[in-house]
Design brief:
Length: 115
């Protein structure tokens, strides 16, 4: 099993930026396609962005052009650069495999965007 630890969230005004990090506990991370997910209060968890093991990226329509996903396999770390944040981006953000079979979810990191 792989443990995932997210960090970097916080409170930011609309239009601001944050950079989230996800650190994995095992090197198997490097061979897996990964994704950032978010869950707002009362809503289901949704996939925000994905990155393949080789670095190919894809984004949900709501974040396309504002968010950028990247990874550093040598550091077992994945990032989510979030720019032009909107109040509707407020959620707990999680990282996990971009596949049906997930590793255990981490605690997530709270992102709150004020208007």
């Amino acid at each position: 099993q792989v443990q995932l630890v997210e960090s970097g969230g916080g409170l930011v005004q609309a239009g601001g930026s944050l950079r989230l990090s996800c650190v994995a506990s095992r090197s198997i991370f490097s061979f897996n396609d990964m994704g950032w997910y978010r869950q707002a209060p009362g809503q289901q968890r949704e996939l925000v962005a994905t990155i393949t093991s080789s670095g190919r990226t894809s984004y949900g329509d709501s974040v396309k052009g504002r968010f950028s996903i990247s990874r550093d396999n040598a550091k077992l770390t994945m990032y989510l650069q979030m720019n032009s944040l909107k109040p509707e981006d407020t959620a707990v953000y999680y990282c996990n495999r971009a596949s049906v079979l997930k590793w255990s979810w981490g605690q997530g990191t709270q992102v709150t965007v004020s208007s």
